[in-house]
Amino acid sequence: MLSARGLVKRYGQVTAIDGADFDLMPDEVLAVIGDNGAGKTSLIKALTGALVPDAGEIRLNGEPIRFAGPQDARARGIETVYQDLAVAPSMDIASNMFLGREIRRRGVLGSVFRLLDRKTMREQAAAHLASLKVGIGSLTQPVETLSGGQRQAVAVARAAAWARSVVVMDEPTAALGVKESGQVLDLIRRIRDSGVPVILISHNMPHVFEIADRVHVHRLGRREAVIKPSEYSMAEVVAIMTGALSVSPDGGTVVADSDAASAAGVHAS
Ligand SMILES: Nc1ncnc2c1ncn2[C@@H]1O[C@H](COP(=O)(O)OP(=O)(O)OP(=O)(O)O)[C@@H](O)[C@H]1O
Ligand SMILES: [Mg+2]
Fold first, then answer.
1. One MF term in GO for this entry (predicted)?
2. Is 39 a pocket residue for ligand 1 (Cβ < 6 Å)?
3. How many CB atoms lie within 10 A of CB 71?
4. Is residue 228 over pLDDT 80?
5. Residue whose CA is closest, atom 18 of ligand 1?
């Protein structure tokens, strides 16, 4: 669905992306994990038009592509949920769902006087939230009066509403409690089941293991491994992330740093 080969991005002396490869399959939740500074956000920015790589190739549905900017990626069906600035707090839920894509009234009221068709937007927002099973009282409620989890749900639902190709989420559960995180994870599953693949950046290993079909492990600016959570333990995945273990071509693990591996409590298989 979305892939990259040999991406490079340098900021002066710092190489944020160092020859990274990436592959997102249709119908999957792909988690992207890695230590702080490994280059996950930079990789995602390159894949969503928010930064222009110095080198490398990106393909969408097999076609080579260069995004002119985030709006270009959005126009091609790639929606990104950022951890902050996800919603406009003082606006109501329906307005947030249609932010930047407002429906105008028909005729001169819309074309000349730019009046919004609030009724249609409310109806469509309600139908969409209901289809995602997001339970929110009133759509005219300002988003700032919602709980953190409900707010996140609105941001995720908005992305799901507009995404035709891919939904990308950078730490969507970082600030959420157990119940709220569960709701966002459910929503991610429903998006995937509706046929839109999801890229999930997360530091939360239990969430990653609960929801991801595959895990892209990022280390020192590039893809270190891609694993299936059913085939590895959390300790092994953390060890791959930190460089204590490496994955051999046959899929087994090899001890790269025996002290670090024994500290993590894992051995090669
Ligand atoms: N705009 C920038 N200018 C200079 N250096 C940058 C810039 N953006 C990222 N970097 C550097 O690139 C490296 C990768 O950063 P990035 O934000 O992609 O990491 P990350 O994996 O998302 O980390 P975290 O888990 O902490 O969010 C870091 O060393 C960072 O300091
Ligand atoms: Mg980051």
1. ATP binding
2. yes
3. 11
4. yes
5. 39
Residue whose Cα lies nearest atom 3 of ligand 1: it is: 11
Per-residue model confidence (pLDDT) at position 43: 96
Ligand nearest to the CA of residue 38, numbered in listed order:
1
Domains of the chain: 2-231 (3.40.50.300)
Could you report the per-residue pLDDT of 99-118, keeping only the tens digit for each? Answer: 777 888 888 887 877 788 88
Nearest CA to ligand 1 atom 28: 37
Task: Map tokens 């051999």 to a residue.
Answer: 248
The pLDDT confidence band at residue 76, using thresholds 50, 70 and 90, is very high
Distance separating alpha carbons of residues 65 and 257, to the nearest angstrom = 39
pTM here is: 0.85
Please tell me the predicted confidence (pLDDT) of residue 62: 94
Judged by DSSP in three states, 150 sits in helix
Q: Residue 19 is inside which H or E element, if any?
A: strand 14-24
Q: Which of 61, 50, 36, 9 is nearest to 166 (CA)?
A: 61
